């Protein structure tokens, strides 16, 4: 899917890590929520409140998932899932354009 139709977008950005990560909330009529975001180069740790499906739309990143010891290299088109109430780490060397779906 390359676009979302008939949605609402929260105007205020979520800004993290001194502005190196930002996202906007997209609200769907069925009550579901996604965020569309952008990461600049850096290493970041995120905590989850609910299950998340992360899709890399453009760029590259490495991900260290909960319970893993090896970083996974990912490129545009790749995705991963994380459970609620965990942390995961992301390393970005250039940039990362992403979509996070909450389930």
UniProtKB/TrEMBL annotation:
GO molecular function annotation: purine-nucleoside phosphorylase activity; pyrimidine-nucleoside phosphorylase activity
Keywords on record: Glycosyltransferase, Transferase
InterPro entries listed in its UniProt record: Ppnp (IPR009664), RmlC-like_jellyroll (IPR014710), RmlC_Cupin_sf (IPR011051)
EC number(s) given by UniProt: 2.4.2.1, 2.4.2.2
CDD domains: cupin_PpnP-like
Domain of life: Bacteria
GO cellular component, as recorded: cytosol
Enzyme class: transferase
Keyword flag Metal-binding: no
Catalytic activity line of the entry: cytidine + phosphate = cytosine + alpha-D-ribose 1-phosphate; xanthosine + phosphate = alpha-D-ribose 1-phosphate + xanthine; uridine + phosphate = alpha-D-ribose 1-phosphate + uracil; a purine D-ribonucleoside + phosphate = a purine nucleobase + alpha-D-ribose 1-phosphate
Record's keyword annotation contains Glycosyltransferase: yes
Biological role stated in the UniProt entry: Catalyzes the phosphorolysis of diverse nucleosides, yielding D-ribose 1-phosphate and the respective free bases. Can use uridine, adenosine, guanosine, cytidine, thymidine, inosine and xanthosine as substrates. Also catalyzes the reverse reactions.
Similarity comment: Belongs to the nucleoside phosphorylase PpnP family.
Name of the protein: Pyrimidine/purine nucleoside phosphorylase
Gene label: ppnP
